């Protein structure tokens, strides 16, 4: 025990790497004004409140500890079984329930009425914990509902966690959950009892439970909302306010019935991931089974798709409708992708309405936007990174259709030689105009020689910020006239150029680099 009778008011307590501590403090300290409690890496701790303070039941006596606690974080406590495993209110008539209660439930039932201010609960790497809330014998004096204003619940790497609630509270408890994260809890059997309100949940992240797909070694976005093992969802509609959802291949193949319990009406971001078999194709049929009226963002990650949008128009009009609603498309680590398929005629509505396109770590992609794509009228942001097979981004005719593009960033593309490839029909008197582009970033492009290979006039009405770094082969920006009246000083590697035009600045920086290499 590390604390005796307090001589001062505690509001925040942080304990870390105190390996010999069995318990933190007595109940007399826990009754104090503690608002935030963070305990981590205490190898021998079995509880937080000392187990030698067993309260005897007396008339009108209640446990009153942690009544002001708003945030509780418990991480890397391998022997922790409960907050206060032996601190029970007992009498002779209560012996049976005491003996039958689980000693590995983190928050015992008698403690729950005290948690009237708890908003955040994070439990991680606590091997003995089997459940979080003990609701088998929840005390409800005067039949009042116990209100716990818990908004954020994070549970990670709890190998023996089988339930969050060890029973259905049947209305005796009220929560206001908004964000729930469950990760690497391989024994979990259920998330939500039927009576636990799920209407407020906006973010539900369930990763790497006991589904086969959880064994993937491919990196996953951690900012996405994921439901992997749908069998842990109880019956009834789950999270009608859920706005983000991520599905694996296994979910789509085997999880159709469980998906019926997930309300998809408010889904704004959908992620499809972990299609690793060579025969895997983009799951067009899936979109026939779901309705996504509010979809805005589609993310495809960690998969072996070679082509996304095929030449044959899908028989399922639902996919076309979903694409027409998209504002953002993110492709990440599609390591066999050769064609996105933006040239297909039935994808035209996507090109009109898409605002943001991110293509990251697609190493087999050799063609981003085919020359036949003449209009990308809605695109405002384009980010390309780690696409080793690209030699250029788009042709001059396609560039003329980027009328709304205002941000462009390209990085880590080993073979990229130019951003805009000229066409035979380009003439010096022609203009390639970027009417809205104001921010341009080029970095780690070892073979980039120029932004535009032609001699037509490049015109930027709003270009203000240009950043170029580690583009050692870049000799010029373009080979024709360049108009960029609003351009601020240009950052090239560690130098800033302000008194010369962009072509001159890049050329002089190139010569400077050559001299440094020779010397």
From TrEMBL:
Q: Disease resistance protein At4g27190-like leucine-rich repeats domain: which residues?
A: 102-206, 374-476
Keywords of this entry: Plant defense
| Key word Transcription present | no
Q: Known Pfam families for this protein?
A: LRR_RPS2
InterPro entries per the UniProt record, alphabetical: At4g27190-like_LRR, LRR_dom_sf, Plant_NBS-LRR
Give the signal peptide, or none. none
- Protein name listed in UniProt: Disease resistance protein At4g27190-like leucine-rich repeats domain-containing protein
